[in-house]
Write a structure and sequence with these properties.
Shape: globular
CATH topology: Tetracycline Repressor, domain 2
Oligomer: single chain
Distance between the termini: 60 Å
CATH class: Mainly Alpha
Number of strands: 0
CATH superfamily: Tetracycline Repressor, domain 2
Helix content: over 70%
Length: 141
């Protein structure tokens, strides 16, 4: 245990370091832009959050404890914002929601899916994601 604390000032910083690879994996999911990009990214992000409660805890913190985590999370917000902007331009996304809010919403969905009684978390997550994606669509005139 003493060795760990030589490298990390707190348990929180250790937790952050343990999930850095998740940010990298998610960055790879963005891939090519296109009409399915937003759903593809949010689906992958939600799946990671459901599988890894630590990743959810780290990404839902108000402030990152390490500079690297802050940089990774800021990059995720920027990439998602670009993806959402493209979806708005195609008329697929309402204008009054921000990337940071969507990321926090996904953390809430992951928590709900993992804690749903008598339900497979992945299946529950899929249903919840569909509800959210339908709600993010612009309303019909």
């Amino acid at each position: 245990m003493a060795t760990v604390y030589r490298h990390f000032a707190s348990v929180g910083e250790l937790e952050e370091a343990l999930v850095w690879n998740r940010f990298t994996a998610l960055d790879d999911v963005f891939g090519e832009p296109g009409p399915d990009q937003l759903e593809r990214v949010l689906s992958a992000y939600l799946a990671m959050l459901i599988e890894d409660a630590l990743f959810e805890r780290v990404t839902s913190r108000g402030d990152a404890l390490s500079d690297r985590t802050r940089t990774l999370r800021d990059s995720l917000v920027v990439r998602l914002d670009e993806c959402m902007r493209a979806a708005r331009e195609r008329g697929e996304l309402r204008a009054d929601i921000e990337a940071q809010h969507v990321l926090m919403l996904m953390c809430g969905l992951a928590f709900a899916a993992r804690n749903a009684r008598d339900a497979d978390p992945r299946q529950a997550g899929s249903v919840l994601l569909r509800v959210v994606l339908d709600g993010l669509a612009p309303s019909s005139p």
